[in-house]
Amino acid sequence: MDEKQPIHPAIPALKKDMEKGLLTRREFLRHATLLGMSAAAASQLIGFTWPRKVMAAKIRRGGVLKISQQIQKIDHPARFSWLMPSNSMRMVFEYMTLTDADNITHPYLCESWSASTDLKTWTFNVRKGIKFNNGDQFTADDCIFTITQWLDKNVKSSMLGLVGSYLDPTGIEKVNDYQFKLHLKRAEIAIPEHFFQYTAQVLNHRTFEGDMKKAPHGTGPFTLETYKEGEICVVKARKDYWQKGFDGKPLPYIDEIRFIDMGSELAPQIAALKSGEIDLIDASDNPGPQIMKAVKNDKHINVLPIATATVRVLRMRVDMKPWTDNRVRMALKLCQNREKILALAYQGEGLEGQDFHVYPKHPEYCKKPIPAYQPDRARKLLAEAGYPHGIDVNLAVGSEWSDVVRYAEVLKQDAAPAGLRINIQTMPTSQYWEKWTEVDLGITPWTHRPLGTMVPNLAYIADDKGKPVPWNESRWVDKEFSELLARASGILDVEERRKIFCKLEEIQMTRGSVGIAYWMNTWMCPNKKLMNVRAHPNLIFLFNEAWLNV
What we know:
Layout: H1 10-19, H2 25-34, H3 39-45, E1 64-68, H4 83-89, E2 97-99, E3 105-107, E4 110-115, E5 121-126, H5 140-151, H6 159-163, E6 172-176, E7 179-183, H7 191-194, E8 222-228, E9 232-237, E10 256-260, H8 266-275, E11 280-281, H9 290-295, E12 304-306, E13 311-316, H10 326-334, H11 338-346, E14 350-352, H12 375-384, E15 391-398, H13 402-415, E16 420-427, H14 429-435, E17 441-446, H15 454-459, H16 479-489, H17 494-511, E18 514-515, E19 518-520, E20 522-524, E21 530-531, E22 547-548
Parallel strand pairs: 1-10, 1-11, 15-16
Antiparallel strand pairs: 2-3, 4-5, 5-7, 6-7, 8-9, 9-10, 12-20, 13-17, 13-18, 14-19, 21-22
């Protein structure tokens, strides 16, 4: 951010809230950086010492990093359904912003931004001197093109739900080649974080025609050499990347990264990690404690823990019977013995959930009691809904998610006394992702988001024509919920936002479409030779400045 530019008028108020104990220092930094203040300046304002970077003398260049990852079908990054393909393509395609492991957002392809006092006009300054790997100059046109792709209903991007709720194409203004403005339909606090969603990779407007494999022209530190679905992805270091290392030479330090598809079974991947055949397992799609517990005593492997808003969501299609009736939905939710599910499905490594999609560590979280297991009440609700003798339902789950399968098994057992007879339909994870928005009842993994406003805008609202947004897998749209969420998304004051969230959470608990039994702790477990990496709450890979100590 330009030091001559005045700070946003809300930042002094945020500092006072922190001094009163209403915000933690991390929460202050998160909000101040969203408003365009650099992390260094915000830290200095509150007397917080930013971690020093590693000394150049420790760094080694070269080497090949080997990662086990399912090599999934890809075409348009805005249509990624899960994190794995974004992790490999993040080496090639970058983002306008970067939200780090502490949930603090930093400049990236956009070197700075600022917001109007009412949070309805945002100005982004594009970093100069960056080139795509095909030699094209990176400009504001590429950012604008990428955003319009998100807003194009034909693309069917999840970003439409997140960004389309406050922006349409007419609100995008190109000021010059290196600056653009967004004129919003309503106030929004989290735009810089939205721009680091894993589906938000920036595209080359000159060459991209819908398939990133055919035109892999990104600004990232690596180029795509090979992409064979179900087999391998290879990326190789650029010589002209825009970021410089500690030695003054262009990043990256690593010469090559190989993403190797070893299937979905964890046992052979863990064996390969322990033997040194691979250096890391991409656990973003299966972040359970199995890997951590298998390698925690291995002297060659680091175990990097992190608390996260990653979660498994029991979701019901409200436009398909019997889930059209809220009494049936509530009956199923009451059959969740949350303490038991967390213990048996996830070995107790997490927090119990409350059937609303807001993580207990989100800044705006409003504390609610954990719902009790109540099969008798569930049976009464089923009878009231016209099912006095109970009901048979099918529950779709991905077979490679061991905790999801166990969640389903425990739920089946504990729902039986209520008259809910659950038939578990297991299928390969890839097959589940092909139909995850279409099954009437399923358990879907959702990854971490830094603010409580973000997932509800992705998953529980409609577009401007009243149609559920692309990732609204349950098709649940509630007018009061949507109106409150729109208000909360534009409120910077955390305490005021929390007051609205108390109502939002209650609505989703009592008439919503999801059951959330537990939130998941996660771990990143790399070989110790992989240096200068941190575990990210989304288990995403940020390897620009990583190196191999070999």
